[in-house]
Amino acid sequence: MSVIQQQASARRAIVGTPAQWLTWGGVALFLIFLAGVVVAPLANSFGNHWFNAWWPSGFTTKWYTGAWKDFQLRQVITVTLQVAFAVIVLSVVLGVPASYVLARKKFPGKQVLFGLFLLPVLMPPVTYGIPLATALYRVHLGGTLAGVIAANLVPAVPFVVMTMTPFIEQINPSIESAARMSGAGTGSVFTRILAPLLVPGILASCVLVLVRTVGMFELTFLVSGPTSNTLVVKLFYAMTAAGIRPQQEVDAMAVMYMLSMLVILVIALRFVNPTQLVARVRDDATD
Amino acid sequence: MSGTVATPVRPSLAHRLAERGIDRTLWLVVPGAVFIVAFFVYPFLYGLSLSLTPSGGDTCGAYSGVLASYHCFFADPFQDGWGTIGKTLRLALPAALFNVVASIPIAYQLRGKFRGKRFLQTMLVVPISLGTVLVAAGLLNFAGRSGWINRFLLLIHVIHKPLALVNNYWGVLFSLIITGFPFAFLLVSSYLSGIDPSLEQAAALMGAGWWQRFSRVLLPLLAPGLATTFMLTFVLAFSVFPSATLVGNPAGSTRVIALVAYQAYAEKFDYSLASAIAIVMGLVELLVVGLVAVWRSTLYRGSTGGKG
Questions:
Q1: In this predicted model, what pLDDT tens digit does every residue of A153-189 receive, in sequence order?
Q2: Is this prediction's pTM over 0.90?
Q3: Over the stretch A13-46, which tens digit does the pLDDT of each residue have?
Q4: Domains of chain B by range and CATH?
């Protein structure tokens, strides 16, 4: 490489070549770690016997049938699906109208209302989860399916509001005005004009709520009872009660949970980009 | 004899309210707002009042007064409030800092378009959606005493006996990095994409070296975004407790505050103490986030040249 070429490449990259190597090395190390974290339980769950070796000796699927029976996974998965479905529907029903008002209207107390919807997203679940669980048990909702759904709705409704408000803001209000001028009532403006325009945004927020609800550990853990555990909570219990069931069965359940999350993730990434999965970031980044 | 004269042109009450933005569409916000008040604000206030009415149970019976639960948390040797807060911060601050700092060069290298970018981003989202419980399950296998990491290090003779990588401080730190780094990376790269690359080219044309371009041009523009990323990763790391139980040493070095709050709630059934700890936890977190927010407000807040 000539000196001129070297200078040119140094000018293109802000960090020099060794730093580039370091960066890619870091990425590679991270991906290796990630692969290890995913593959190790996968191998163990199919392994006949794995002790002090690189790889299990012989493969079997018996741990899966065992886990399915021992952990009552049919019931757990049914509960998980019910919770996820109910949370998605209710959070959209409660959140989308609210975000329409927040996006379109100016009224006294709007900032307060916005703060009200922002707080549950900012607070870590454990801080409000403990008082919430206590309150839910007091009204006899603790340990029930309804209680788990209600607890999961607390971060989900604000999340829908936070994703839908900017989405509605970018829909031109003159479309609605035109519909009203042409004689449409409020009802038909919503059902025939806004709803079709909102479908992509609603789908995106549904998928994000799905990812969060299935993965939500803390709130479900605090509120759920024996008949209302979701998959992730059941997995945690199985892991803390180590020794009662074979480790391979626990890993088999972990793999099932992993697979269901991956399926959801693949669906999710068809509708949203990866950054949206972690947070809502304003496009102008000046914040 | 009233002195007010209703002029015939005075608009109706509904009309006047509508001019201030109050009309029937506001009803749409009511269900959502009522839900949040009933299931977030009310439990929070309930928890606050609960924390101020000590249960007088076995755990905190020795303390009296309105603030007994708080007093118990900080003074009781079994609760060890200050120690717990310290342990939580010793985990959450380094993890958040590492995640943000490591994201900067990687996000920088990966900005712009290249083959496989979407694939790499997807790979990075995987641990976020897996969550801490599953990452803990994987770490126990992968980094355990006879896991692949130790086997490999033994094989290449870097170490002579297996390292203790899980069931201690390092296990939790690893799990916080595996779940937190992708989060920080995605945020930092989206902030980075908002900085116009021509600013950097201009600096290069004027003879700035790479370090000058980084420290004098890019970093000041990126700093507010980094502060936000730090706050969000910190919040994630601060409240984590599944990994502190599963890959940490929950009786010792990783007895984090969320775990102590949970134990008071589910094992000691002392709801007053549990609420008090939850509130202390919220306050400590708000304090750290507030300090970062104050620091961020001193930073440059202008345009970053739009989407690059």
A1: 999 999 899 888 888 888 888 888 899 899 888 788 8
A2: no
A3: 544 567 678 778 888 888 888 888 888 888 888 8
A4: 68-297 (1.10.3720.10)
**What's the pLDDT tens digit per position in A226-254?**
888 888 898 888 888 766 778 788 888 88
Q: What confidence tens digit (pLDDT) does each residue in B70-83 have?
A: 888 888 887 888 98
Angle at B54 between CA B49 and CA B55, to 5 degrees: 115
For chain B, how are helix, strand and coil distributed in percent, rounded to 5?
Answer: 70, 0, 30
* Residue A195 near residue A105, CB atoms below 8 Å: no
- The rounded distance, in Å, linking the Cα atoms of B274 and A131 is 8
Measured between alpha carbons, how far is A231 from A217 in angstroms, rounded to an integer?
9
Tokens of A175: 């479309």
Query: How far is the C-alpha of B232 from the C-alpha of B188, rounded, in Å?
Result: 11
Quick one: tokens of B302? 């202008």
Half-sphere exposure of A84 (CA within 13 A, CB side): 25
Determine whether the interchain pair A277/B129 forms a contact, defined as Cβ–Cβ distance below 8 Å: yes
User: Tens of pLDDT along A87-107?
Assistant: 999 999 999 999 998 888 888
- Is some CB atom of chain A closer than 8 A to the CB atom of B61? no
B36 touches chain A (CB under 8 A): yes
- What are the residues facing A59 on neighbouring strands? A47
Query: What is d(CA B127, CA B106) in angstroms, rounded to the nearest whole number?
Result: 17
User: How far is the C-alpha of A13 from the C-alpha of A11, rounded, in Å?
Assistant: 6
For this complex, say whether ipTM is above 0.85.
Answer: no
Q: Mutation target for A interface from B141, B218, B240, B262: give the one with most A CBs within 10 A.
A: B141
Residue indicated by tokens 């990812």: A211
Q: How many C-beta neighbours within 10 Å does residue B34 have? A: 11
**Cα(B20)–Cα(A203) distance, integer angstroms:** 33
Interface of B with A in 65-104 (CB under 8 A): 102
CA distance B106 to A129: 35
Does the pLDDT of residue B34 top 80, yes or no?
Answer: yes
- The pLDDT of residue B267 is above 70: yes
Chain-chain contact of B121 with A36 (C-beta, under 8 angstroms): no
The neighbouring-strand residues paired with A224 are: A143
Q: Between chain A and chain B, how many beta carbons pairs sit less than 8 Å apart?
A: 297
In whole angstroms, what separates CA B199 from the centre of its chain? 32
Do the strands A57-59 and A47-49 form a parallel or antiparallel pair, or are they unpaired? antiparallel
A55 to chain B: closest CA residue: B148
